[in-house]
């Protein structure tokens, strides 16, 4: 009886403390005019619920508070916006007190000149320089031949093997970028690959800079990446020869005249932005095509028709790429259904009013675009993999289609990313057939990933 009473008392006291803490945290953030919502626990907010329940957390909160609610996630008071019109407005109005709101750990490791860390005129310059190295004409004349050469060699010996396609597509995305940037030596690219992977993990970690933490390793990774890049740039500058690659474009750019620090951060941005996006889209396309034989057949026919007029070693060119209409549709449908990007983050630089509510200075806005991907008005039968829906090209430019973001920060690498995945699929489906080994788990939130790899058995087509 006494034990029971003690346990009972402990439970009552704990309940009291928990309720008091939750209440205190609500009162702490109480301010007239804020959107509805809950702030969760002190310090942690609702991060655990958000990470554990993922999209269901968002849907539940929306059911209770509407499409514009407050929360406290990932260490910051946050407004979640799930309204497509409002999301569009936020992305189009960056100048009016809104800047990117990515976690400090990410910005610290990606560098202070990184495009996501700069605003106003500095952003304009970095974006202008970025657009010049990934423009359609640069892709056509310089990058596509490099991507083709790289993919052909990367996919040359997959037949008869069991592969982790997640690992292979990650390696593919990174090494393909090295090739386009102009880092081709095996020795340099091997150490750059190792250090860059540390950097990536650091950007996704808690910002605790103690020996042994991922954050700390991420910083070391950045330091070593910078050292390697600095050497490459100095060698380039000392040499009289010109280079038709991204680095050549950045070093020889007289319009934006970037400093060496800016060039290095720009290169890190290219590597970082095209890494998980391109690799995950490629892996998920392999998955969906495997599960949808009719789509795979149509895709394969499109690529075999291109090969028909070519010798076995002829590269694909810009016209071939532009003719890959069904491939483009498969890529858009893959990005939509898998939701490669859940949304983007912004932060307020001053108190502002949005949607009739007050958003205090320094709060984050999570422009959550995931739900738009499953909007049945825009995508009838939204859970079905139906690439044919993208044959109507107007869907690509629909103002609620935010697979590549929108407004002033619309992804400048959109066409480059699509060209990379298309070239990968070209060599993959014309050279090979594959089946899944089975038993691998795919997680869809917070990132699309296969925690233990995604294994396929590959055989040659001929
Ligand atoms: C194909 C897969 C890709 C997807 C799904 C994707 C998606 C996105 C999204 C949603 C944004 C908006 C971020 C924001 O508003 O804060 C963005 C921005 C950006 N992306 Fe991509 N991206 C892809 C490939 C690439 C590639 C290959 C590059 C390489 C150059 C790239 C470079 C960038 C850069 C530099 C930004 C920042 C733009 C700015 O702040 O002005 N992306 N991307």
From TrEMBL:
Record keywords: Heme, Iron, Membrane, Metal-binding, Monooxygenase, Oxidoreductase, Transmembrane, Transmembrane helix
PROSITE patterns in alphabetical order: CYTOCHROME_P450
Binding site for heme: 411
GO cellular component terms listed in the entry, alphabetical order: membrane
Gene3D superfamilies xrefs: Cytochrome P450
UniProt-listed CDD domains: CYP90-like
Keyword Transmembrane helix: yes
Transmembrane segments: 6-24
GO annotation terms (biological process): brassinosteroid biosynthetic process; brassinosteroid homeostasis; isoquinoline alkaloid biosynthetic process; response to light stimulus; sterol metabolic process
A GO MF term: iron ion binding
Annotated compartments: Membrane
Topological category with respect to the lipid bilayer: Single-pass membrane protein
Cofactor: heme
UniProt superkingdom: Eukaryota
Pfam families according to UniProt: p450
Entry's family note: Belongs to the cytochrome P450 family.
Protein name according to UniProt: Cytochrome P450 85A
Species this protein is from: Papaver atlanticum
């Amino acid at each position: 009886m006494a034990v029971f009473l003690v346990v009972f008392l402990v439970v009552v006291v704990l309940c009291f403390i928990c309720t008091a803490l939750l209440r205190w945290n609500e009162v702490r953030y109480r301010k007239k005019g804020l959107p509805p919502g809950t702030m969760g626990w002190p310090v942690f907010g609702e991060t655990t619920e958000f990470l554990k329940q993922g999209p269901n957390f968002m849907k539940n909160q929306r059911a209770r508070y509407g499409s514009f609610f407050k929360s406290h996630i990932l260490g910051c008071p946050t407004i979640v916006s799930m309204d497509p019109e409002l999301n569009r407005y936020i992305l189009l109005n960056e100048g009016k007190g809104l800047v990117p709101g990515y976690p400090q750990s990410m910005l610290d490791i990606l560098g202070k000149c990184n495009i996501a860390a700069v605003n106003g005129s500095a952003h304009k310059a970095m974006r202008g320089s970025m657009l010049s190295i990934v423009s359609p004409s640069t892709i056509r004349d310089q990058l596509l031949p490099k991507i083709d050469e790289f993919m052909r060699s990367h996919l040359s010996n997959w037949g008869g093997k069991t592969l982790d396609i997640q690992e292979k597509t990650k390696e593919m995305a990174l090494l393909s970028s090295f090739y386009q940037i102009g880092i081709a030596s095996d020795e340099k690219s091997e150490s750059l690959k190792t250090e860059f992977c540390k950097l990536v993990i650091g950007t996704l970690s808690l910002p605790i800079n103690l020996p042994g933490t991922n954050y700390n390793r991420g910083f070391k990774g950045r330091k070593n990446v910078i050292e390697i890049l600095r050497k490459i740039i100095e060698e380039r500058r000392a040499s009289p020869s010109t280079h038709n690659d991204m680095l050549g474009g950045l070093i020889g750019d007289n319009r934006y005249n970037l400093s060496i620090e800016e060039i290095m951060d720009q290169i890190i941005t290219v590597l970082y932005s095209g890494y998980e996006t391109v690799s995950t889209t490629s892996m998920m396309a392999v998955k969906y095509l495997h599960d949808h034989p009719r789509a795979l057949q149509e895709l394969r026919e499109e690529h075999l028709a291109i090969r028909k007029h070519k010798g076995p070693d002829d590269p694909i060119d810009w016209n071939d790429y532009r003719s890959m209409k069904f491939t483009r549709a498969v890529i858009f449908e893959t990005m939509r259904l898998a939701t490669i990007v859940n949304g983007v983050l912004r932060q307020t630089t001053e108190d502002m009013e949005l949607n009739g509510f007050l958003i205090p200075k320094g709060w984050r806005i999570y422009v959550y675009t995931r739900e738009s991907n499953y909007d049945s008005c825009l995508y009838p039968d939204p859970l079905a993999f139906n690439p044919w829906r993208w044959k109507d090209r107007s869907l690509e430019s629909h103002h609620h289609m935010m697979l590549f973001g929108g407004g002033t920060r619309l992804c400048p690498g959109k066409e480059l990313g699509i060209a990379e995945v298309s070239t990968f699929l070209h060599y993959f489906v014309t050279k090979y057939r594959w089946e899944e080994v089975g038993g691998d788990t795919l997680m869809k939130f917070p990132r699309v990933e296969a925690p233990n790899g995604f294994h396929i058995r590959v055989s040659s087509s001929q």
